[in-house]
Every structure is written in C-alpha cells, then in structure tokens.
Amino acid sequence: MDGSSNHNSNPNPARIILIPFMAQGHMIPMVDMARLLASSGALVTFITTPVNAARIRPIIDHIENSHLPVRFVQLPFPSADAGLPAGCENADLISSPDLFKSFMEALSLFGEQVKLYLTAANSTAVPADCIIFDCLNSWVRAVAKSLDIPHIMFYGPSCFYILCAHLLKKHQVLKSIDDDYEPFKVPELPEPVEVMKAQVMRWMDRPGWEKISEEFYKTEKSAFGVVMNTFEELEKSGLDKFRKEIGKKVWPIGPLSLANKDLDSKVMRGKASSIDTGVLSSWLDSKTPNSVMFVSFGSLSRNPISQLVQIGQGLESASSSQLSFIWVVKEAERSEEVENWLAEFEERTKGRGMVIRGWAPQAMILGHVTVGGFMTHCGWNSTLEAIAAGVVMATWPRFGDQFVNERLVVDVLRIGVAVGAKVPIFYADEMSGKGLVKGEEVRKVVEKVMQGGEEGEERRKRAKELAEKARKAMEEGGSSFENLKRVIQFAEGEKKHFE
Ligand code: UDP
Q1: Is the Transferase keyword given for this protein (predicted)?
Q2: Quick one: which of 125, 151, 158, 481 could link to 144 by a disulfide (CB 3.0–4.6 Å)?
Q3: Both 280 and 386 in a single domain?
Q4: Which domain holds residue 325?
C-alpha cells in the first residue's frame, strides 16, 4: 500500500514516520497531521495495521489521488499473541475493560514488527529523519534509540489536561486526598479550576499499571519535543507553563481537523459515514441557522438503554418549535430493545430529529451553519472540532481527560454549559448504567445552550471569536502553521546531522 507519488518540489524532503495509537480519537488527528506535513513538504510514512487501514481506505485513496507524499504501511498486529480476539486492532473493538491491558501488551509486541520493518535487510522502508509517535506508544523509545532516530511525542489531549496531570504528579496531590468527590484546586495551574479526584485519576494511576506508567514518563523524558493538537491563542498560559514544566520544545499545531478543507475529506474522517451525506446535507439545509443541536459522545463512550431513553426524553421535551437535533446512536449501543424504542421516538420527532445509527461525519455536521450546539462527552478532538466550528457545547464528560476538558470549556473559555455529570464511567463499564443523567437535566441544558438569552448570545459570540482565531492559526503565517514548519525544519536539520 505505497501511496507515494511524490509531487514535492523539495528534492530532499524531511522524512517523517508517524506512529498513531490505535483508537479513533488518536488515529484521526494523526491522519490529519500526515496530510498537513505532506502538504508542507515532508515525505510521510504512516504506520498502521490491516483492520485500521481497511477502515481508512477511502482517506488513503483520497490522499493518494491528491498526490500527497504519504506512504501508508500496514504491519500485522499481534492480537492473538496478547490473548485478544483476532482483528481486535483498535480500542473501540475491545469488548471488556479487562482486555485493555492485553491491548497495551499487543501494542508493545507491535513495536517489534515496526523495528523489523525499519531494519530488515530487504525492507522497503524509507530512512527516517524523525518519528512522531502517539504518547501511548512508549515502545517507540527503545526502537528510536536503537536506530538513532530522534522522536517527537504527540499528545492528543488538551494542554490544559496534560498540564493538570503533570502538576498533580509533581505535587503528589492525589495521595493526600481521601474523598473522591471533594473539589480541590490544581496547584500552580495558571487558570485555577476545581476538579475531583475520581475525575482526574487516570487508568495509568491504577494499581497494576505501574510499569506502563513508568515507561510512559521515561518516553516523555527521552523525546526531543512534543507536538499537540491545540493552538497557541486557545491555551497560551497553559502552553507557556507546560513548556517550563517539561523543559523541552512544545509545538501546538492544531486544530488538526482544519487540515480537511474539502467536503470529501471532512466526510471521510475516521470511518465511512453511516448516513448518505446528500440526505444529511438536504436535511441540514432545510433548517434555520443555529437551530440544530448535534448530540454525539465520541467513539468509545457507550450509553445503556436507560440513559438513551433519558437523552431521548430530554431532546423531545426541549421547548422550541425551531429546535432540531441530530443524535448519533453507536453500533455498540444498539439492540432489539433499543431499536424498538427508537422507532417510536423517531415517529414522534419526525421532521425535527434525525438519528444516525453508527458513524456520523462529525466534522461536516459541526461545520454546517444550521448547527448551533453540540452535546459532547468532551473528548479533546470533539471539543476542538466544536471550537474550530464556533459551536457552543453542552458538556457531558465520561472518563480520561474529559472532565478536565469540561472545566476548560465551561469555566475558562466560557463556551459551554455542563449537563452536570459527576461520576466517571470508563467506556466499557458503561453498560452498568452508573451515573445516570435524567431527561429533565438534558432538556434544561439543551434549552440553555440553544437559547439562553443574553448569556447564551455572549457564549455564542465567544465561540465564534475562537473559531476565527483557530482558522487564522492554521493559515499561512498563523501560529500552528509556523509551528508545523518548525517541526519539519527540525527533521530537516536532523537529516543534515545524520548524513
Ligand atoms: N467521530 C466521528 N463520528 C462519530 C463519532 C466520532 O467523526 O460518529 C470522530 C470525532 O469527530 C473525533 C473522534 O471521532 O474526531 C473522537 O475523538 P474524541 O477525542 O472526541 O473522543 P474519543 O472517541 O477518543 O472518546
């Protein structure tokens, strides 16, 4: 699967290898990164696995047809060797939380495949000047060191979250807190917000994960620098503080979703859309500006039927003849019972509501002028995609970085309203239905976000201003554009050094 038809005017381009973590929220921004690096003159090798390559086949074809110098390489993923079912090559295919550790083990074994690919005598690999790797791929440290290739870490979450995690570790804060739900302030955070232990505990902090956690920090230490999917104007004080804390280069190069300029590339992100985009466009076009609420909770969080019913009741009872909604119900949430309930729900909300079963073309939906609100789990990609589109948010975090992202959106940027979820729910645990949010809460927050009077208008104005800043950051001369150039220059400099 060699997609390189190099139309690069630079006869000696920087050669960069990208190694994503296999989860939608990590793969999608790295595919965007590949597109951007290649458009800016680098020769990119994107390493993935057969199942993931099949999923992004339309994007691979699209990039190849654009003659961008990105080479997609698929290497076998050793699922079976780590006790995983065959084909379990992406975090959204893990059926139970117990298997998450096996998935991390399979990833380490995958590192051996990558090393072999890069070093075997008959390898077709292009020599690399630099590796950019997802922060969860700690195995890259050993491979890069043994091959003497500089490596740059890609942090997918917000800088706000990464900085919080660093400061909590530095001050050993969590060890001194007994009450999981007692709000406390993160020391030294430039924009002080209150968080709770239960919400900021990472899976890496759990007993049994010490080795993985240790590897993670060793790898961060060994990396030359860090690239982040954010932009200087959005997280200025956090980025400055993080640079001081980490003592190395930190290049914000986002919002990466803005790498997708044409409709086709927006629609293809992640997986093939489960809805005909012509039908979707006509439906959206028939609405008035800012009247549609988009409801979607990323690629991993799952709602049990009890929660789906409450969401449906909230959307149905939100009072406005003008208010419409698009609601994404994931494949993993569907069952006969859910389908029976949905059929009646769709009948009652005909014309005003659309349910997408499976995968929605999120970047396209958020960018439509009639979409005025986004009920989100606060995954960082979704959050930043909403920011880039100037859409205000109803925040409903579930796990990981999401509660901290919520604080950034609601308290610091003031472009969102919290649904009020407090209890973290790790994605595959979710079927137990812990932390249920009532339909009445959903209704209130939908009305507040979509209407909200003067306060609502102010929120919308702030969101639009941030979207404008995001657009400028990615344009020629903008902060993220220039940072991306610096990353490429770094790789070029390394080339001179090694040749
Ligand atoms: N996404 C999408 N369609 C869907 C669900 C998700 O395009 O139906 C994309 C979304 O635009 C984002 C990514 O999947 O780019 C999800 O990443 P995020 O960090 O928001 O959440 P995660 O899935 O990692 O929890």
Answers
A1: yes
A2: 151
A3: yes
A4: 273-471
Does 3 map to a domain? no
How many domains is the chain partitioned into structurally?
A: 2
Q: Is residue 122 within 8 Å of 153, Cβ to Cβ?
A: no
Ligand 1 atom, smallest distance to 358 CA: 8
Check which CATH number belongs to the domain holding 355 and give it. 3.40.50.2000
Is there a single domain that holds both residue 444 and residue 486?
no
With a CB cutoff of 8 Å and minimum separation 6, the contacts of 107 are 21, 22, 136, 137, 139
Name the residue of 382, 384, 426 whose CB sits within 8 Å of the most ligand 1 atoms, as the mutation to test its pocket.
Answer: 382
Ligand 1 closest atom vs CA 363: 11
Residue 5 placed within a domain? no
* 380 CB within 6 A, ligand 1: yes
Cβ(328) – ligand 1 distance below 6 Å? yes
Q: Do the Cβ atoms of 80 and 47 come closer than 8 Å?
A: no
Say if ligand 1 is within 6 A of residue 360 CB.
Answer: yes
> Quick one: 126 and 224 in the same domain?
yes
Ligand 1 near 260 CB (within 6 A): no
- 298 in ligand 1 pocket by Cβ < 6 Å? yes
Q: Average pLDDT of each block of 10 consecutive residues along the chain (499 residues)?
A: 46 92 94 96 96 92 92 94 92 84 91 89 81 95 91 97 95 92 95 93 80 90 96 97 96 97 89 94 96 96 92 90 90 93 96 96 97 98 98 96 97 97 75 77 95 93 98 97 96 67
Rg (CA), the chain: 22
Can you tell me the ipTM of this complex? 1.00
Asked if 293 and 433 sit in the same domain, the reply is yes
pTM of the model: 0.95
